[in-house]
Specification:
Radius of gyration: 24 Å
Protein name: T9SS type A sorting domain-containing protein
Number of strands: 16
InterPro entries: Secre_tail
Distance between the termini: 83 Å
Number of helices: 2
Keywords: Signal
Pfam family, one: Por_Secre_tail
Strand order of the largest sheet: 2-9-8-4-6
Length: about 260
Amino acid sequence: MKSPLLLLLSLFSLYVLAQGTVLRVEPGNVVKEVVVDDLDEDYQDITNVTVTNISGRTIQLVQEQLVGNKPRAWKYGTFSRRSRTAPYVLSEDDGQGDIPVRLAPGESASFYIVLQPEGISGEGSIEVRFSDLTVPGNILATSTFATKVIRRPRVNAATPPSLPLSTAAYEAAAANRPVPTDVRLYPNPAYERFFVEAPPGVKLGKIEVANTLGKRLRTFERPMGKDGYEIQDLPDGLYLVSIYDSQGKKLKTLRLLHRRFGA
């Protein structure tokens, strides 16, 4: 009578071990509030998650996302480190569950949970489920994310605030107002070169051009003004242009289509 019972207990222990100690996900649950100065359509909030294989076997790791309540326009995406780099191009279904990541015992992989609120404040949540491609339907671990996005009101130096601040306090608030980032590229699509336009008070600095995988292809260390930024020798395609101010702060990363008309 003891042998069958011991065998049953051993099988149950193995099952629990297999189910409960395959993956370690850090962090497992995230609740965050993000206050954004310039909540435009290109803004993305990115959270890093590390998944570690703590089992004794190799796993073909895949993930899927289950989106909860959110503003209708919000988009979520889950990407592995090798997928691409920011800014991410999100589609309606960016779970990336069909791209397995091979994890040997003891290995870790980074995943990025990307939220693009499309310029809209609000609250939303997502659950990311990790499983082994070779064992379909068996969820090994989950990680949940709840995010609240708030647009910070701007202080306009030309218009007195509605609250009764002292003169000194108002001047300090105006001096600490975030630098606006509503810069733009033109023309887009571009042919031989493109130009960068910044609002008054913003001094441009370095400009970087990268492909959609994040590989930097061009660096312009100073503003080119009326001469523009030459990209004539780059192949046709979509590029990411990162714009910095004169202090080295990144203002924005914009997409630029390069098309050599007539080529």
